[in-house]
Specification:
With 367 residues, the chain is α/β, with parallel strands linked by helices. The protein has two domains: 2-154 and 334-366, Quinone Oxidoreductase, Chain A, domain 1; 158-300, NAD(P)-binding Rossmann-like Domain (Rossmann fold), CATH 3.40.50.720. The chain is built from 13 helices and 17 strands. Strands 3, 4, 5, 6, 7, 16 and 17 form a seven-stranded mixed sheet that branches. α7 links the parallel β9 and β10. α1 (38-44) crosses α12 (344-352), α5 (155-168) crosses α11 (315-324) and α8 runs parallel beside α9. Belongs to the zinc-containing alcohol dehydrogenase family. It comes from Halorubrum vacuolatum. One of its GO terms (biological process) is protein tetramerization. Keywords: Metal-binding, Oxidoreductase, Zinc.
């Protein structure tokens, strides 16, 4: 089969590799399409973001290249190991979760999100930048009928967004701010409305995300022409929002002073409110803990992976159902679909330079 092989930072090739065979607890998946994440593209270009050390070790330790990336995908189960019962041949699946060790204190106590020895798809084992891949059942969920291929390949970030909203603990009638209307910012904003928020203010500096946000019932605020904190305080009678979601990430200098997104979230949220940290901030960040204490603000870093909601469903299953029911139009952010694995380099370029390519979300590669 063909797969993307990484020879070094910024260096990749398409190579013929052996097609994997599922073991007793695994399934073999024919990849339908894969969506690159910003983190994966940044890592490929050598940026020191999350997973950098593991990626650098994998690249430096492989004499003939290594298989990396591709955790956001949709595919069809075409074979399964003898011990697999929960998935059948023909099921369409995506991978919202991680592979947990099953033996640490977190796993044994039902708190697998805190597992100290997780295996991450595309980092610790090959991902979906290939025609086929094998995975255990644990991180996989079925894709319901009626979910398009572009939406299905974009489900993994939505599953994370659902978990973010669960951890944000939004109350009915809350006013919510989303700083950054990118993929997860947009998803969190739409989900906040679905979870009971009264108004959701979407702050961005780009026309198209603001237009889509308005079309989906959010209140757009153009930070190029308006002071977003002043605008939100004015619309909440000076009180501030109940929950502020920082969904920009990137290089920021201070979390409580100035105009960086996190500092804007701090200034926009009311006393006793919540800041939800969705964006991945690179480098060091200064904060004044006393400021958080004086306003009694909860600064929440949401869990990762999948969490149970009821005995019948979990965050990842709910995410797929919300798309199937038309409640969250995630395919609005799929603007660039490229054919074949040899489009990998172009997909990286589009994903990292969305404005230059008039892209809303990451590029998808159709196999």
């Amino acid at each position: 089969m063909q797969a993307v092989v990484i020879d070094g930072f910024g260096s990749a090739r398409i190579s013929d590799v052996e097609r994997p065979t599922p073991n007793r607890g695994e399934v073999l998946i024919r990849v339908e399409r894969v969506q690159l994440s910003v983190t994966e593209c940044s890592l490929y270009r050598g940026m020191e973001v999350a997973h950098y050390d593991a990626v650098a070790e994998a690249i430096n330790g492989a004499a003939d290249g290594t298989r990396l990336f591709g955790h956001e995908f949709v595919g069809e189960v075409i074979d399964r190991g003898a011990a697999v019962e929960s998935l059948a041949v023909g099921d369409r699946v995506y991978a919202p979760g991680k592979i947990h060790c099953g033996t640490c204190s977190y796993c044994r106590s039902g708190h697998a999100n805190g597992c100290v020895d997780t295996v991450a798809i595309g980092y610790d084992r090959p991902g979906a930048l290939a025609e086929y891949l094998t995975l255990p059942v644990e991180p996989l969920r079925r894709v319901p009928e009626g979910v398009s291929a572009p939406a299905a390949a974009a489900l993994q970030p939505l599953a994370s967004s659902v978990l973010c909203m669960v951890d944000a603990d939004i109350d009915p009638g809350d006013d919510v701010a989303v700083l950054g209307a990118g993929v997860m910012g947009f998803q969190c904003g739409v989900l906040a409305r679905r979870f009971g928020a009264d108004r959701v203010f979407a702050v961005d500096v780009r026309d198209r995300p603001l237009e889509v946000a308005a079309e989906c019932g959010l209140v757009p605020i153009d930070a190029r022409t308006t002071d977003p904190v002043a605008a939100m305080r004015d619309r909440t009678d000076g009180l501030g929002v109940d929950v502020a979601i920082e969904a920009v990430g990137g290089d920021q200098s201070h979390g409580t002073v100035g105009d960086d997104p996190l500092a804007q979230a701090y200034r926009a949220v009311r006393g006793g409110g919540t800041i939800l940290q969705v964006g991945h901030i690179t480098g060091d960040l200064s904060v004044r803990p006393r400021s958080f204490r004086s306003k009694s603000i909860d600064w929440v870093n949401p869990r990762k992976g999948v969490a149970d909601l009821t005995p019948r469903t979990d965050t990842a299953t709910l995410a797929a159902r919300l798309v199937a029911d038309g409640d969250v139009p995630i395919d609005r952010y799929v603007t660039h679909e490229l054919d074949g694995l040899d489009a990998f380099e172009r997909a990286v370029e589009i994903t990292l330079a969305k404005d230059e390519h008039d892209a809303l979300g990451p590029a998808q590669i159709v196999l």
